[in-house]
Amino acid sequence: MKHRVPSRLVRWAVIGVTPVLTAAMLAGCSSSDSEAPTSSDAKISFTLPVIFDLTGPLGVYGQSDLLGAQLAVDLANKSGEFDITLEVHDSASDPNTALSEANEIIRNRNLPVMMFGGGSQQAVAIAPLAQSSGIPLVAVQSYSAGVIDQGDFVFRASTPQEFFYPALAEYAASQGIKTNALIYQNDSPTIKDIGDRVWPASAKEVGIEVVKTFSAPGSQTDFSSFASEIAAANPDSVFVSFGGAINANVIQALHAAGWQGTVLGGPPLAGNVLPPLGAEADGTIYTETFSPATTTESGKAFVEAFKAANDGKLPDSFAAETYDGVQVILAAAKLIEGDLTRESFKEALQKVYSEGKVSGATGDPLVLIPERDSRTPGVIQVFRDGRPHLVSP
């Protein structure tokens, strides 16, 4: 589902966490609504379609995705340099819905670029379509290797998770962790690779022994049997990685089984996954792309702007990543002389990734590489007292 509205209305719609881009707000809109993009001495004007997992299991991340993108567009428009309309699509945490929304965007030739933020299953579905249709796709999150491998119209503005886990393992070992159990989602391309390959190798490298390994589909709801086996083995730590709020269910099951060690994890534990657990989440150590305690000038500016726009709420990694994705698109738009076409956007984006001079929430500058990917370093945080606390770097 899609709606094209002025930026202030999109932000108003998502403040209440529950997605409300439905019903009357969504009525009567079609892909022919978008005006042709223009670039002049006055303002750079275009419609930016974004596809986020606003509902479904990954909606806990998608709401933050939208807030980050919205802030970036608002600030760009207020600068006087841009006149951007955000066109919001909900992929509903479903690859088929993501494909349908992408097809709607592609059919409108007035849309010169698109952005996706969310699960790898959706990204892997969209990326080949963007490539074959010749529309630049800037993906955030979307950590699977199968995304940018599709070709030169596909770019990623988020660093793949796998580059964060060696540092997490090293930090865990420094905290005295010697044994580990692993439980992860086996039907998400990115998370499956983390569980099958990346985390075991990272743990082994620093001398952490993985004593139990379990995997389950994202639809799993009962983790009591896994938790009982883990509790019986009593490892120092458990690495937990699923998509969305299901991570909280796993942690609760572990504690209900009597296990009292340290939970480890990555970006799937970020956002609003841990706060609902309260004190039960205290001590969780996880790596992600961003911390509100950032010390970079562009990062601090993002935090203050986000708080001002969202009643003092602190931004999370998902908001930071989509904010940065929009910064990449804006940087490309400023390089284009003449019409904002799909081909001119692709060429400008390639130049942006080759030069790597974009500042954002997660890096100043972002570490963009010519292979159309990101290598901006992550952070390690410990959750306690209802929020994450930066411990490294």
Spans of at least 5 consecutive residues whose pLDDT stays below 50 are 5-34
Spatial separation of the terminal alpha carbons: 40 Å
Annotation field: number of helices: 11
Rg estimate, integer Å:
20 Å
Q: Can you tell me the number of structural domains?
A: 2
Mean pLDDT: 90
**CATH structural architecture of the largest domain:** 3-Layer(aba) Sandwich
In N-to-C order, the SSE pattern is: EHEEHEHEHEEHEHEHEHEEHHHEEEE
Q: What's the CATH class of the largest domain, please?
A: Alpha Beta
- Tell me, briefly, the overall form: globular
Short summary:
The protein has helices spanning 7-14, 59-78, 95-107, 120-133, 165-174, 189-205, 224-233, 246-256, 297-309, 317-335, 342-355; strands spanning 2-5, 38-39, 44-52, 82-90, 114-118, 137-141, 154-156, 179-185, 209-216, 237-241, 262-265, 285-288, 368-369, 373-374, 379-384, 387-392. The protein is of the alpha/beta class and 393 residues long.
Topology of this protein?
Layout: E1 2-5, H1 7-14, E2 38-39, E3 44-52, H2 59-78, E4 82-90, H3 95-107, E5 114-118, H4 120-133, E6 137-141, E7 154-156, H5 165-174, E8 179-185, H6 189-205, E9 209-216, H7 224-233, E10 237-241, H8 246-256, E11 262-265, E12 285-288, H9 297-309, H10 317-335, H11 342-355, E13 368-369, E14 373-374, E15 379-384, E16 387-392
Parallel strand pairs: 3-4, 3-5, 5-6, 6-7, 8-9, 8-10, 10-11, 11-12
Antiparallel strand pairs: 1-4, 2-3, 12-15, 13-14, 15-16
